[in-house]
Design goal:
Blueprint (H helix, E strand, L loop, with lengths): L10 H35 L7 H17 L6 E2 L13 E5 L5 H6 L6 E6 H4 L4 H8 L2 E3 L13 H12 L3 E4 L17 H9 L2 E8 L17 E4 L5 H4 L4 H26 L11 H20 L9
Parallel strand pairs: 1-7, 2-5, 2-6, 3-4, 3-5
Antiparallel strand pairs: 6-7
Helix pairs in contact: 1-2, 7-9, 9-10
């Protein structure tokens, strides 16, 4: 039986994590904004950096510096297993989304990359400026509950252009952060893009809901887990519709997240999901996985083996 953690015992620890983390983050990104950002603007203006990759690599450097300087912070990530895409390879990273920490950790992914983001973020001061400098792909809000505007011809063309320049694309197919840390239903636009682009898919599962929860700013967990799943080739999913593909990838990612959490429960004494109040959520997650698997099997939805 699970033991109930006394979270009040760790409030001082959370405060220290938060103070150190935000101090480091602010310092590092002030340096980036006032040193690397002007350089990025100049390089793009004079035509040396048309792809706006200098800003991307500068941000990668800033994020890695943040993690290195944050004493005690350790991300469990299998970067050695997944290399950057080779020239001519098209890669779409699919990330679950439960924390603002997701964006910071996504800069650890191999190779140069751009995000597909909603246009509402471009309209915000400072954040919008950074998106423009980064050259991310901007899409509109959803037209309805099922389809996203990122399926528009304009978004697809921008994505294809990025792939042709050797740039990977990062997308959060849930469309927004998950309130409870479970992987929510996927929007289907990303999978239309994948089928049109005939690209490789790399699902990335992050267990960081408790690092910075969606409803707060306090840093609680400085040992999040990130798992990159082996690339899925176009030939493995080309027979599926975008709806079937979205359901299958969500199952693969939800199953991996469940496995990560079960392993952490056994290995980490203070892991937050050892608290008995999460027992019902985890049971529901397991039951949902079984239902999705049964549905996929009944409809014969699966990946083809590599030739």
């Amino acid at each position: 039986m699970r033991k109930k953690n006394n979270n009040s015992d760790f409030k001082l620890r959370y405060f220290l994590y938060t103070f150190i983390g935000y101090t480091l983050f602010t310092t590092i990104f002030i340096i980036q904004f006032f040193i690397f950002t002007p350089i990025s603007v100049i390089l793009h203006f004079i035509g040396i950096d048309n792809n706006k990759l200098f800003f991307t690599y500068a941000t990668k450097l800033s994020c890695r510096s943040f993690f290195l300087a944050f004493i005690g912070h350790k991300i469990n990530i299998n970067l050695k297993e997944i290399k950057a895409p080779k020239k001519g390879e098209k890669r779409l990273y699919l990330l679950n989304h439960s924390s603002i920490y997701d964006v910071i950790m996504s800069y650890l992914l191999p190779g140069p990359s751009k995000f597909i983001i909603k246009d509402k973020w471009v309209k915000k001061p400072f954040i919008g400026w950074m998106q423009g400098l980064a050259g991310n792909i901007v899409v509109g809000e959803e037209k309805d509950s099922n389809e996203a505007n990122d399926t528009s011809l304009n978004a697809i063309q921008k994505t294809l252009d990025a792939f042709n320049r050797g740039i990977s694309i990062i997308v959060f197919p849930e469309g927004t952060r998950s309130d409870n840390g479970m992987i929510q239903r996927f929007k289907r636009g990303s999978f239309k893009i994948a089928l049109d682009a005939e690209c490789d898919l790399v699902p990335v599962v992050m267990d960081d809901w408790n690092t910075i929860r969606p409803t707060g700013l306090m840093i609680r967990d400085i040992k999040p887990v990130v798992k990159l799943i082996q690339p899925i080739k176009y030939s493995q999913y080309s027979h599926l519709t975008h709806i079937e593909l979205a359901k299958l990838i969500r199952y693969i990612m939800a199953k991996e997240l469940y496995a990560i959490r079960e392993e952490r429960k056994q290995k980490e004494k203070n892991y937050y999901r050892n608290d008995e109040k999460y027992a019902q959520e985890d049971l529901q997650a397991k039951e949902e996985l079984e239902k999705i698997k049964a549905d996929l099997d009944a409809k014969n939805i699966s990946l083809k083996a590599l030739n």
